[in-house]
């Protein structure tokens, strides 16, 4: 079937009121970026839905790209037909025939927004249902669970017909809920936390702590590859790589071993907060999962959070580990995360970290050494990379969208 457009349904965006246009504009931007490699397409955004005019481009490839965009509830390849009953009947028959297999059932789902159209919804059902029954031997009607659901939408300017309803990623368009910094390690959890936060409309920039020579270039490449996977959602993403060796060495020398992880996490959070402030972010995202490791008990979180008033988002906090792994596999980050290259958190982990650290104690231990110059040096020497997916080099006219 030669589809000429793809109909995009908004889902959650449709519940927005006066600020709906802001969300639609963000979604349109996401769609433009995702479809940058299809130069002939045109995008038409309306209050209640969006259309991608195909103009001869590969429909299947376009749909593949659209399915991953947050803010799209569902989409359908469709055809546009003028308001002529004979043309409409032939188009409907052709559409159903292109999908029909022997023994399948169908139904008509009309939507008549243009009340001036000559047929009401009942008339559309009878006219088009009868025509299909006459011209496709063996096909039957099933109004409850059909194999083919022919949707006929009557709008003021034309008729739109579609048979497929393809689920999108849901959520809200990236950037519609502000910006936050993702503390991205090389593990399984933090990329999933970033993904789920992006699904709620948050634009993310990643912060990674790198401790050469204790951590290798391969571990850095691993994190860059994880960032590339997350960048596929929006086309581009900033990755801040923080030199952390001097701070970790100082912690090892100055802080009692069982409190070293708590101090390490506190300083990571302080540095991430400084980068957030410079980048005008509004929150910090972590992959913390309650009780999973010593630094993720409630007592540890309380002691670590003490260094900032910035909101800390923990989308995985109460999730089961198997559920996190499933999402990691679904978004194609799992195989990257399990590469055997350790990050700075695993290299310097103490043998018996404190699971219930006292805030007052960690403050006391940190007071014997002035860490501020080391923290400021790490912030100033942070390397910022702009990450884009390997398979999607963006044309120059899209540079302003990043």
TrEMBL record:
InterPro entries: Rossmann-like_a/b/a_fold, ThiI_AANH, ThiI_fer, ThiI_N, THUMP_dom, THUMP_ThiI, tRNA_STrfase, tRNA_sulfurtransferase_ThiI. It is an enzyme of class 2 (transferase). It catalyses: [ThiS sulfur-carrier protein]-C-terminal Gly-Gly-AMP + S-sulfanyl-L-cysteinyl-[cysteine desulfurase] + AH2 = [ThiS sulfur-carrier protein]-C-terminal-Gly-aminoethanethioate + L-cysteinyl-[cysteine desulfurase] + A + AMP + 2 H(+); [ThiI sulfur-carrier protein]-S-sulfanyl-L-cysteine + a uridine in tRNA + 2 reduced [2Fe-2S]-[ferredoxin] + ATP + H(+) = [ThiI sulfur-carrier protein]-L-cysteine + a 4-thiouridine in tRNA + 2 oxidized [2Fe-2S]-[ferredoxin] + AMP + diphosphate. It comes from the Bacteria. Its main location: cytoplasm. ATP binds at residues 183-184, 208-209, 265, 287, 296. PROSITE patterns: THUMP. Pathway: Cofactor biosynthesis; thiamine diphosphate biosynthesis. The keyword RNA-binding applies. GO terms for molecular function: tRNA-uracil-4 sulfurtransferase activity. Its EC number is 2.8.1.4. Keywords: ATP-binding, Cytoplasm, Nucleotide-binding, RNA-binding, Thiamine biosynthesis, Transferase, tRNA-binding. The keyword Calcium does not apply. Residues 60-165 form the THUMP domain. It holds the Pfam family THUMP. It is found in: Cytoplasm. Belongs to the ThiI family. Catalyzes the ATP-dependent transfer of a sulfur to tRNA to produce 4-thiouridine in position 8 of tRNAs, which functions as a near-UV photosensor. Also catalyzes the transfer of sulfur to the sulfur carrier protein ThiS, forming ThiS-thiocarboxylate. This is a step in the synthesis of thiazole, in the thiamine biosynthesis pathway. The sulfur is donated as persulfide by IscS. NCBIfam families: tRNA uracil 4-sulfurtransferase ThiI. This is Probable tRNA sulfurtransferase. The gene is thiI.
């Amino acid at each position: 079937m030669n589809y000429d457009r793809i109909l995009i349904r908004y889902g959650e965006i449709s519940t927005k009121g006066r600020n709906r246009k802001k969300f639609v504009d963000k979604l349109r931007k996401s769609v433009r970026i995702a479809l940058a490699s299809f130069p002939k397409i045109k995008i038409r955004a309306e209050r209640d839905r969006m259309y991608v005019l195909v103009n001869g481009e590969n429909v299947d490839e376009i749909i593949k790209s659209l399915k991953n965009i947050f803010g799209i509830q569902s989409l359908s390849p469709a055809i546009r037909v003028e308001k002529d009953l004979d043309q409409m009947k032939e188009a409907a028959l052709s559409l159903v025939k292109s999908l029909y297999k022997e023994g399948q059932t169908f139904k008509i789902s009309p939507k008549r927004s243009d009340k001036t159209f000559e047929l009401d919804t009942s008339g559309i059902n009878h006219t088009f249902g009868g025509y299909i029954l006459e011209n496709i031997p063996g096909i039957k009607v099933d109004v409850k669970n059909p194999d083919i659901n022919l949707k006929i939408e009557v709008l003021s300017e034309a008729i739109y017909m579609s048979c497929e309803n393809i689920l999108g990623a849901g959520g809200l368009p990236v950037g519609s809920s502000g910006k936050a910094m993702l503390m991205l390690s090389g593990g399984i959890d933090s990329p999933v936390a970033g993904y789920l936060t992006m699904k709620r409309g948050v634009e993310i920039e990643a912060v990674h702590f790198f401790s050469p020579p204790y951590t290798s270039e391969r571990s850095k490449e691993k994190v860059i590859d994880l960032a590339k996977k997350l960048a596929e959602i929006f086309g581009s993403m900033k990755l801040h790589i923080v030199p952390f060796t001097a701070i970790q060495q100082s912690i090892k020398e100055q802080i009692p071993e069982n409190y070293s992880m708590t101090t390490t996490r506190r300083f990571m959070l302080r540095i991430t907060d400084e980068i957030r402030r410079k980048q005008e972010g509004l929150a910090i995202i972590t992959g913390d999962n309650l009780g999973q490791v010593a630094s993720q008990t409630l007592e540890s979180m309380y002691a670590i959070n003490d260094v900032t008033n910035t909101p800390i988002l923990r989308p995985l906090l109460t999730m089961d580990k198997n559920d996190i792994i499933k999402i990691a596999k679904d978004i194609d980050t799992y195989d990257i995360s399990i590469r055997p290259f350790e990050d700075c958190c695993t290299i310097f982990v103490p043998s018996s970290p404190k699971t219930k650290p006292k805030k007052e104690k960690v403050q006391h231990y940190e007071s014997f050494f002035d860490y501020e110059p080391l923290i400021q040096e790490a912030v100033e020497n942070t390397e910022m990379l702009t990450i884009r997916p390997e398979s999607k080099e963006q044309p120059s006219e899209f540079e302003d969208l990043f």
